[in-house]
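User: Quick sanity check before I run a bigger batch. Here is a single chain. Can you write out its predicted 3D structure?
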Amino acid sequence: MSTPSYFEGSNSEPVPSIDNAFDRSPWHDPDVDDVIDAEDQPAATEREDTSKKTRARKPARTTAKITAAQVRRVLKQAEDIEELSGPARDLLAAAIGSGTTATEDLVVATLSGAKGAAEAIDGLRELIGEDDVYNAVVIGTAIASDRDTARRTWGLLTALDKVQGAIPAKEVQAGAKIASAAKSFTSDDIAGLDKVIALLG
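Assistant: Done. Predicted structure follows.
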């Protein structure tokens, strides 16, 4: 049985269905609300102007300029690396931690991130000049305590056939092996380190 929308025999207005009773606020005035809604929305021209200003504020991209001096430096570095013998090239790759001995890769690596390699070679040279065994182990242990320096140093020693296998996990043992290996350096080994240092400069 359906409920009539108004009482029979009455002249009163139809009673709204209860299903729609909460669709609108009792204070809703269509004419007023539509005007307010329109005022809240920015005009199309205003939105376009704001968008143009936002785009105008974006900084323009600048392209880095390559100087003639930079080009000459890269070409000279490539020429010097090309002249290296196989063992010297292996030594350079070990110093910079490169997995390849390709000239272009060595050029990029030596010109961009050679600080760690230079520190590893400096540590070895200090060990080579140390006559006291105890002090040599102390220096070697200090080298082994820094993971990056230890990795580079061990790579250099491996390239020079001074050590084999992986570096010991314990720092003191690794330091002792590094110190012992440095004592076996020949004049040719030192000359090889000098070539690497020259390319890292």
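Confidence is low (pLDDT under 50) at residues 2-10, 21-27.

User: Great, the batch can go ahead then.
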